[in-house]
Specification:
The structure holds two protein chains of two kinds. Chain A is mainly alpha-helical. Chain A is built from 14 helices and no strands. Chain A has a single domain, classed as MetI-like fold, CATH 1.10.3720.10. In chain A, helix 4 crosses helix 6 and helix 6 packs across helix 9. In chain B, 36% of the residues are buried. Chain B has a two-stranded antiparallel ribbon. Chain B folds into two domains: 71 residues, no CATH class; 233 residues, MetI-like fold. Chain B has 13 helices and two strands; from the N terminus they run H-H-H-H-H-H-H-E-E-H-H-H-H-H-H. Classes of the chains: A mainly alpha, B mainly alpha. At the A-B interface, helix 8, helix 12 and helix 14 of A face helix 1, helix 6, helix 7, helix 10 and helix 11 of B.
Chain lengths: 326, 328
């Protein structure tokens, strides 16, 4: 039976192309590998659950911990529901995971803290990915002196651990800006510091892939017909290096969340007015000596589950996108 | 060989120069050193005197030259916050950090390498599988969470180990050590394990991966065909060839041990350099920050240099390449 082709279908519309690529995705190897990996599916479900809890924290959290006026010191340091602490205080159902020293509900604080941690994490990974990918593309495609300069900087930076670079940037900015302004801009400084410690991974990976793509025929062909180098990089090379960028991006998200938590734990991260998971752990840390473990343990647990789930997802993605392992 | 060493040395000097430049600009341009040292309500003469004494009126290249000259003699100026020479502060804190890092590195190697060899040789035993699973969780556990958990379990609930400080130290003149007394060891145990855990899992996974790789190679098959004993193959041939990447990674990891000691020192109130640096950042104590930066860079450069040279000594293939290259 002859298939009728509408003239418009020869060059498919944008919507058509999106639908096609969605179909391709669900028929494709990556989705198949996802369906056959229980670890990946669980990790994905857990990650999505945590994203959901964070994104809708203002509506679904039992208490609004962002609003200081709702806090009541009478509720401070309550143990979790069903637990009696060393002083004989019993937990109540209203504060399922107990409260901290200000009377903040731990469960709600974790949900709001997750949101802050993920905001910083996503922002810094996106910044690092954009900067790293652009520099990696240029480095790999243009080559020559520019390449060696960018890669030498990357080499030197790679010998310094990320946490040290982030700490240093934070310290320098603190010295350059007046204190009040610094407090206000803290979240941006943090994003910048974490991104600065992560761009190298993107740049090196993209450079490597670009070098491979550069030698292939389609790039040669584009060069021959006189396409502008910038256009070749964006339209032809970039789409073919997105796989590795996606993998590095996922693993970097876990690392960025960890770095943010560490910096906040060390007291150079976000201010206590908008606590992230790391800040919560730092606040709770001083109370473990009196046996009030819930203030630290629950936020730590949330952090570890988030990082573990994202890491597992990244590991799976790396294997799924690697045709050698199939 | 000589050319290789000279090239590496030159690279190291360039890195140190750049770091010195950064650290100098930190000191010179981040905040006003005179304001920081004298405070807001000082007379103009006092300020001018200090400017002259610090050499701030000289041309900038001259200032940089002085800065490097002083730094080479270990003089990094006065801490803004404590008013004491920074080199004295660091000298007092250095032994604590070095001992912590050294004990952690030894722990990580002592347990990591055998565990890696075992999991590499016995891929499918239940012990290997559980070690691998545990190590995956270990990698996702942040250092400070491990530290807090250990304090909670062994310090608070069980009450076995002290949770902060170095305990009694023995003064050996320039070096105060906590490794000579039982009490000192009880203090260093938890911080060292906390710091070592991540490196341990890393080394274990690396050694395992390398062992699996090497055991597939032809020369191992050939050694088996020759009828060599398993032990000779596993340890004499396979393990030896896995050591090259392990040395590199371990060398680089000592750098990250130094960096992560900042976190461990905070959790356990360990009076080392990391804690000093962190306080330096919190109070924008630029001389402390910049001297810590220079010291860290120096450590990293020395470590990288040593790793490169060790590489050279361990792997004969590298040597023959260079000899061949020189002969052409």
């Amino acid at each position: 039976m002859a298939v009728q082709v509408h003239p418009n279908e020869i060059v498919p519309s944008f919507g058509r192309r999106v639908v096609d690529s969605v179909h391709r995705f669900f028929d494709g190897d990556v989705f198949h590998s996802f369906r056959s990996s229980p670890v990946a599916m669980i990790a994905f479900a857990v990650t999505m659950l945590l994203f959901f809890l964070a994104a809708f924290a203002p509506w679904i959290a039992p208490h609004n911990t962002d609003d200081v006026s709702t806090l009541n010191l009478m509720n401070a340091r309550l143990p979790p529901f069903g637990v009696t602490d060393d002083f004989g205080t019993e937990g109540v159902a209203d504060f399922l995971l107990g409260t901290d020293d200000q009377g903040r509900d731990i469960l709600s604080a974790i949900m709001f803290g997750l949101l802050v941690s993920l905001e910083v994490g996503f922002a810094s990974v996106i910044l690092a990915a954009v900067v790293g990918t652009v520099l990696g593309l240029i480095s790999g495609y243009v080559g020559g002196k520019l390449d060696s300069v960018i890669m030498r900087i990357a080499d030197v930076q790679l010998t310094f651990p990320a946490i040290l670079i982030a700490l240093l940037i934070d310290g320098i900015v603190a010295g350059l800006l007046p204190r009040a302004l610094h407090e206000e801009l803290k979240i941006y400084v943090l994003v910048l510091a974490i991104a600065a410690s992560q761009w190298v991974n993107f740049a090196r990976t993209v450079r490597g892939s670009t070098l491979v793509e550069k030698g292939k025929e389609y790039v040669q062909a584009a060069k021959v017909i006189g396409v502008h180098p910038a256009l070749i990089m964006i339209r032809h090379v970039l789409p073919n290096v997105t796989g590795p960028v996606l993998v590095i991006g996922t693993l970097s998200l876990a690392l960025a969340v960890l770095t943010e938590a560490t910096l906040s734990f060390l007291g150079v991260g976000l201010p206590v007015t908008r606590p992230s998971l790391g800040t919560l752990i730092r606040i709770g840390q001083q109370y473990i000596f009196s046996g009030e473990w819930w203030m630290t343990i629950y936020p730590s647990l949330a952090l570890v589950i988030l990082v573990l789930a994202v890491n597992l997802l990244g590991d799976w993605l790396r294997d799924a996108l690697n045709p050698k392992l199939r | 060989m000589l050319a290789f060493i000279v090239q590496r040395l030159l690279q190291a000097i360039v890195v140190m120069f750049v770091v010195a430049l950064i650290s100098f600009s930190l000191f010179r341009y981040v905040g006003d050193p005179v304001n920081n040292m004298l405070g807001q309500d000082s007379s103009t003469e006092q300020r001018e005197l200090l400017r002259e004494r610090l050499g701030l009126n000289d041309p900038v290249p001259v200032q940089f030259f002085h800065y490097v000259g002083n730094a080479l003699q270990g003089d990094f100026g006065l801490s803004y916050r404590m008013g004491k020479p920074v080199d004295e502060l660091i000298a007092k804190r250095l032994p604590a950090t070095i001992e912590l890092v050294a004990v952690s590195a030894v722990l990580a190697l002592l347990f990591g390498v055998p565990m890696g060899v075992y999991t590499g040789l016995n891929r499918n035993s239940w012990l290997s599988r559980s070690l691998l699973t545990v190590s995956l969780v270990g990698i996702s556990l942040p250092t400070f969470v491990i530290g807090i958990l250990m304090i909670l379990v062994f310090g608070v609930w069980l009450g076995w180990l002290p949770t902060f400080g170095r305990g009694g130290v023995v003064d050996l003149g320039v070096w105060q050590t906590s490794l000579l007394t039982l009490q000192g060891w009880s203090h260093i145990l938890m911080p060292a394990i906390t710091l070592a855990l991540f490196q341990l899992t890393l080394i274990m996974r690396l050694v395992r991966a390398e062992m699996l790789e090497v055991l597939r190679t032809d020369y191992i098959k050939f050694a088996r065909a020759r009828g060599l004993r398993n032990q000779a193959i596993n340890y004499g041939h396979a393990l030896k060839n896995t050591l090259v990447p392990v040395i590199t990674i371990m060398g680089l990891q000592i750098g990250s041990l130094l960096a992560f000691s900042i976190i461990t020192e905070t959790v356990f109130a360990w009076p080392g350099m990391g804690l000093l640096f962190l306080q330096g950042i919190q109070f924008v104590d630029i001389p402390v920050m910049s001297s810590y930066l220079v010291l860290m860079a120096l450590f990293f450069v020395i470590i990288n240099l040593t790793v490169d040279l060790l590489y050279y000594a361990v792997d004969p293939r590298l040597r023959s390449q260079h000899v061949g290259g020189a002969a052409h």
